[in-house]
């Protein structure tokens, strides 16, 4: 009976993966189409990739997208890290729950509402829409992601480690750099990569806060899709998918390396005692 349930669970899992990845592979397949449409495959060709790299505007949008993603992810990771530490150090449960609830507001709010709110806010303070407004918006919605990635790692940490470090004469900076940060490193790394992924993927918020003269790839693809099908967009989407896959693989190896080092250190402590 258990084997039967396991079999159906595996079938369901395969079905879900097919449902998720079939449109992506369909898009990738037609990026190599010799023809101009996705109505039929006319033969294998690289011409849409050549057209993509020859399109200066599309390349500029790609550069803009990665600059925004890396910059916003870096700043959001720093802010989110100290936010998570602040929530972790909060003693009162009610205050901690309030802080967590406030942190999660941007996670549960619709993107359209968030984008419209940022648009109104930036207009009220007189901030010109463009690179700065997009980066600020991406930082804002990435911070809760980082907090949610880092906080569980901090909660897993034994408070006795911090107490022991202070008993040995460590100051606040040394406790942070030699105890807290090394322990929370996998969560920090996860938050950074998730922030990059969310930024690369975002359309709704960016659409509201971008201005004339600056745009990201998602907004550019949307604008071009309204004018008709262009398979160079398929080629760009394929490139983005592969880059995202590379990021996931890098994160996987770094996480495994961190976990292996952590186990090794624990084993060495046992041997010493």
Automatic annotation (TrEMBL):
Residues 62-251 form the ABC transmembrane type-1 domain. It is found in: Cell membrane. Keywords: Cell membrane, Membrane, Transmembrane, Transmembrane helix, Transport. GO terms for cellular component: plasma membrane. SUPFAM superfamilies: MetI-like. It is a multi-pass membrane protein. Pfam families: BPD_transp_1 (PF00528). The keyword GTP-binding does not apply. The chain crosses the membrane at residues 12-32, 66-88, 100-125, 131-154, 175-197, 235-254. One of its GO terms (biological process) is transmembrane transport. PROSITE patterns: ABC_TM1. Coiled coil: none annotated. Belongs to the binding-protein-dependent transport system permease family. CysTW subfamily. This is ABC transporter permease. The lineage of its organism: Bacteria, Bacillati, Bacillota, Bacilli, Lactobacillales.
């Amino acid at each position: 009976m258990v084997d039967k349930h396991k079999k159906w669970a595996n079938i369901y899992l395969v079905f879900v993966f097919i449902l998720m990845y079939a449109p992506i592979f369909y898009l990738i397949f037609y990026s190599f189409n010799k023809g101009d449409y996705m109505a039929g495959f006319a033969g294998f060709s690289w011409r849409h990739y050549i057209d993509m790299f020859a399109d200066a505007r599309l390349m500029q949008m790609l550069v803009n997208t990665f600059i925004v993603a890396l910059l916003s992810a870096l700043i959001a990771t720093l802010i989110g890290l100290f936010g998570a530490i602040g929530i972790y150090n909060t003693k009162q449960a009610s205050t901690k729950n309030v802080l967590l609830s406030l942190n999660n507001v941007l996670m549960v709010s619709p993107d359209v509402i968030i984008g419209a709110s940022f648009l109104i806010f930036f207009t009220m303070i007189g901030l010109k829409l463009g690179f700065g407004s997009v980066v600020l918006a991406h930082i804002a919605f990435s911070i809760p992601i980082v907090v949610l990635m880092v906080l569980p790692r901090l909660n897993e940490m034994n408070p006795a480690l911090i107490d022991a470090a202070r008993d040995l004469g460590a100051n606040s900076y040394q406790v942070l750099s030699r105890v807290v940060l090394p322990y929370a490193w996998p969560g920090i790394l996860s938050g950074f990569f998730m922030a990059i992924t969310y930024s690369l993927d975002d359309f709704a918020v960016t659409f509201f806060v971008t201005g004339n003269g600056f745009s990201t790839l998602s907004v550019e693809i949307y604008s071009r899709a309204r004018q008709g099908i262009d398979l160079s967009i398929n080629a760009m989407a394929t490139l983005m998918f592969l880059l995202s896959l590379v990021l996931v693989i890098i994160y996987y190896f770094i996480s495994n390396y961190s976990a292996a080092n952590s186990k090794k250190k624990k084993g060495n402590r046992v041997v010493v005692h």
